Amino acid sequence: MPATGFRSLVVLGLxxxxxxxxxxxxxxxxxxxxxxxxxxxxxxDLQHVHLSSRFRWAQSNTGRITSSTHQWQPxxxxxxxxxxxxxxxVHIGAFxxxxxxxxxxxxxxxxxxxARDFNVKQLFVAAEPVTGLEFQVGGLYLNRGENTEVSxxxxxxYILGERATFRKAAGAFAQLAATVGHIGEFRTPNVFERFRHxxxxxxxxxxxxxxxxxxxxxxxxxxxxxxxDILRQGVSVRLPASVKLLTTLKFEAYQRVTEVxxxxxxxxxxxxxxxxxxxxxxxxxxxxxxxxxxYSSPNADRVERGTRFFTQGSFAISRExxxxxxxxxxxxxxxxxxxxxxxxxxxxxxxxxxxKANRIF
Length: 361
Fold this sequence. Notes:
- The chain has helices spanning 3-24, 352-357, and strands at 44-59, 65-81, 88-95, 105-110, 119-130, 133-140, 159-167, 173-182, 203-211, 216-225, 228-238, 246-256, 262-274, 277-286, 306-316, 321-331, 341-349.
- The chain has 2 helices and 17 strands.
- 26% of the residues are buried.
- Strands 1-2-3-5-6-7-8-9-10-11-12-13-14-15-16-17 form a 16-stranded antiparallel β-barrel.
- The protein has 361 residues and is mainly beta.
- The model is unreliable at 1-26 (pLDDT under 50).
- Helix content is 8%, strand content 50%.
């Protein structure tokens, strides 16, 4: 064979080998382009949707059974985006429950009649003209900082008003938030029936949040609540991975410094027993005068008032389905409370992540 023909065959063979190797090489996932987001995300950001069921049992310290019932709870939180950069939006929160401290409806199984409440409790316009500075007007969620519903307001609570918040993503300073508005209409969950009080100011709050290193978050606030002055402080500590089981420690407290003075606290810790199983427990005290005049305790209805210890936990069966419990026991309480003993078992279906992963939202 002539030399030139041999060289041509070698070149052709090398070319075919390279082409074959290229065709058989595994595809690098990092080079695979992400599919475009579904068109609905331009307009709707689905933040949270879930449906829960629970059996709740409670007994007062006089021996009366105050609850033995099966309940259900719907929750939807979303925002509607006005501009592509999401600097201007309308937020909506619709929940079960018939009042300020209630997000659950009775099914008719046990004490209590069937309820089908599902109301828009929060509806507000938000604007972030520059990064980190946000303004909100309308039916708002409460800002608790590092405090929880134990020493602050129930997670189902609501107010009307205006809020300005400045946040920083890094550094010791985390946020400064100022809120003015109206707290009230405690048995009127529908925000459209409460909008008439938007200019009736009886609530104010200034909250400062910070970071003491990468694992410690803190907050402190002053709240004016319809004639009462309340100070609150919260600290959350995330433990390093080298600490087995215990993942988080939390301390929160409040002091009511006008009207009838009082104070309370909650000390708790969270344990991650397996990737799917987490639980927490602690000891807390809420003073007997934490009541809002003419209503009830505005904090978590699981807790209300008194000194007690509690445990709660959750086991994730799948990404969407979880089962859990809450148990609380009050002690050394010298006045009548409706929940000296309380136990709940819960099932929660939360398809939010699946809806986004499947590009429905």
